[in-house]
């Protein structure tokens, strides 16, 4: 069970990190979306997705495998139960990625939103 969850978390983070970087690149290239030919827009978007997404996925997948190995080794020092430590790390990572996606897609700083909500 533990190894399945570890593989699942590596896969999830690899895909989400790849999507995050892809969204950053697409946000930096707004001229791609502004052509007047929808066929060209779709074709260009598909080509850019393949050029950017696949190598980036391979890179983030390798990074996450390396990071997860280090995390698991250090998590053993913090908590005896590896599954709980992995789950806590997974939740923290998902929360951080959620905040990053909110910042990129909607320009919303989740931390300041939470602080404003608590202080009001």
Protein model, in words:
By secondary structure, the chain is mostly helical. The chain has one domain. The chain contains four helices and no strands. Helix 1 (2-28) runs parallel beside helix 3 and helix 2 packs antiparallel against helix 3. The longest helix is centred in the middle third of the chain and has 41 residues, at 38-78. The chain is flat, with a radius of gyration of 18 Å.
Keywords:
120 residues, mainly alpha, 4 helices, flat
- The total domain count is 1
Taking pLDDT < 50 over at least 5 consecutive residues as the criterion, the unreliable ranges are none
State the distance separating the first and last CA atoms: 43 Å
- The quaternary organization reads as single chain
Q: Helical percent range?
A: over 70%
Shape designation: flat
What integer is the average pLDDT?
84
Write a concise synopsis of the structure shown.
The protein is an all-alpha fold.
Secondary-structure topology with pairs:
Layout: H1 2-28, H2 38-78, H3 82-106, H4 110-119
Helix pairs in contact: 1-2, 1-3, 2-3
